[in-house]
Amino acid sequence: MSEEYNKGYLDMELLRFTTAGSVDDGKSTLIGRLLYDSKAIFEDQMESIERASLKTGDGEVNLALLTDGLRAEREQGITIDVAYRYFATPKRKFIIADTPGHVQYTRNMVTGASTANVALVLIDARNGVIEQTLRHAFIASLLQIPHIIVCINKMDLVEFKEETFEGIKSDFDRIATKLDVHDIRFVPISAKLGDNVVDRSKNMNWYDGPTLLYLLENIHIASDINHNDTRFPVQYVIRPMKDEFHDYRGYAGRIEGGVFKVGDKVKVLPSGLTTKIKSIDVFEGNLEEAFAPQSVALSLEDDIDISRGNLIIKDNGLPRSGQDIDMMICWFHEKPMVLGGKYILKHTTNDMRCVVRDVKYKIDVNTLEHNNEEKRIGINDIAKITIKTTKPLFYDTYNTNRKTGSVILIDEATNNTVAAGMIV
Amino acid sequence: MDSKYRINHLRELEAESIFVIREVVAQFENPCMLFSGGKDSIVMFHLARKAFWPARVPFPLMHIDTGHNFKETLDYRDMLMKETETKLIVRYVQDSIDQGKVVDETGVNASRNILQTTTLLDGIEEMKFDCAMGGGRRDEEKARAKERFFSHRDEFGQWDPKNQRPELWNIFNGRKHMGEHFRVFPISNWTEMDVWQYIMLENIPIPSLYFSHEREVVNRDGTILAAGEFVTLKEGEIPQKRIVRFRTIGDMTCTGAVESKANTLEEIIDEVAATRVTERGGRYDDKRSEAAMEDRKKEGYF
Known about the structure:
The structure holds two protein chains of two kinds.
Chain A (H helix, E strand, L loop, with lengths): L1 H4 L7 E8 L6 H11 L5 H14 L14 H6 L6 E6 L3 E7 L7 H8 L4 E7 L6 H12 L4 E7 L8 H15 L6 E6 L23 H7 L13 E2 L2 E3 L11 E5 L4 E3 L3 E5 L4 E9 L2 E3 L1 E3 L3 E6 L10 E4 L5 E12 L10 E6 L2 E14 L6 E2 L10 E14 L10 E5 L6 E7 L1
Parallel strand pairs in A: 1-3, 1-4, 4-5, 5-6
Antiparallel strand pairs in A: 2-3, 7-16, 8-9, 9-15, 10-14, 11-12, 11-16, 12-13, 12-15, 17-21, 17-23, 18-19, 18-22, 19-20, 19-21, 22-23
Chain B lengths: L8 H19 L3 E4 L4 H14 L8 E5 L5 H14 L3 E5 H6 L17 H11 L4 E3 L16 E4 L27 E4 L7 H11 L10 E8 L2 E4 L13 E7 L9 E4 L5 H10 L17 H8 L3
Parallel strand pairs in B: 1-2, 1-4, 2-3, 4-6
Antiparallel strand pairs in B: 5-6, 7-8, 7-9, 8-10, 9-10
Helix pairs in contact in B: 1-2, 6-7
């Protein structure tokens, strides 16, 4: 792999970030600005939004229109759903999960946050930290996004004043103490004019920190993956049925934690049987070692019964196991959660049934207060619940591994995904 | 962390796509992969081969043949299927026309692009496929930006953008009722640039149409169309020889070429990096209206 890195532009890292903020915060304008200034917007797209701007009578070209995808949204000036945007600089390729920030869209923010390395939280400099800011920061911490960049926007409308920036910064720091976030950065910007987005602002000489794009390009994300506890959920068993690979069995999957090497002693869960890694196979040949997030196939020394849903680990750093599990959930569906109701649970490559045993508390996303009495959980609610599964689950807590610590709940009758769960 | 344990963006996209393709085979009983002979489906098929190596790809490919394909694409397709011992199913738009299910468009801008949807849905129903993988990418077009990896279709094959299942982490919900099916897009997160870089990195053969060549073309409202038996000339249009290449390969009737001298993958990548028009900018089918793709997708288009 190392020679690839020497090939210049192939030496790029992938960074996923999510944006939280309402239309009024200038979120779409900021994304439009990032795409435009990094030259990810093409002429025909520009022409198309120029046409659309004329239609809505905005007067000037509205960069926000770039990110409003569907006709219904353009007509109503709203965003219905998570939209994914892409741009790249010579250093990194970026995937933006662009989510609407209104309270009724908590579920979309949760969805966008689930895969993000970085959360951009937008604050309107005129309004400072408001209820909504707290909600956005809380969701970022709930979903364990490792890095938060607070963009204090519309600095042009507060005369680019340092005191305004510093005041908002300390207000945010105060709420952050209530949250489980570790890496927070602040950038004063004007998305509309471009100050400190891609290019350094000439209006804020008092700010000597990096621009937003510089942060996005340089924030250290390699340690975001858990490289200590080895986790290999078996996804599929490869059996070639060809003469030359007659007895071959490859356990295909994506490594969700740690490093596996040829010769490593491994344990298979739930059977508990142990064996050794014979080879790590990919299309190009064999690897000596493989690590998260690679997709590989493992072949093992001993012929033991392994199927989809099994977990292969090394002997150190065992996962938890059990059937009574506490988790934070975000409810996604109009049909409220049924206490005592049965749902299908999906966890890594496993499917099983579960029953909701208890609601411990519901969280008011605007004040972060816990309500221990409320048992009714409906759309966009966040709560701590206890479930019981039909068979033992092998899992990690969400804050030690986002992949082996997360689940979704599915309604048995409709097959809809009704909740996302983070195991605590 | 040791920089030894990191992979570049192409390898990460590759790992994600392989995971998705394996998930399809694990979750569905009778999946297929849609193959057009274009670069995106070529890359998707390459990823499928990697996902199941050393076994063969455990599902058939399906090509919806409009009858307006470039010969180069069909030759390439047949060569690739033979080399990889892959089962290919071809369903013809002409058959849907002959059966009276759809009516061929007439006139100078006639295209069979929209007609494909009927042939595709019929093919899925006939073969009882419960999942069809496609090479759609979210960066291609506005309506695609909100598409899921696992996209649920009702029993009429339709897509409802307001009622999609949320998709979190890498947990994909492929559960469905009888008669419904899924469209799965394994390369959702790839951009045009990623696809080209990957083709170069992996040294994947592609049809010659993607490289610069001399061809008789007509320029229609800024779209350079290949002059051939399927493109009806407007009055006053005279085909001219130009040095061109194609950025996307679809029907001859709606795929626009670009004037280009790019003859190697390196040159194509440089050109893609410098270009200021999206690849679908040359697609006549998208120019029909601002929401052309959104409308076609709702009906069950690719």
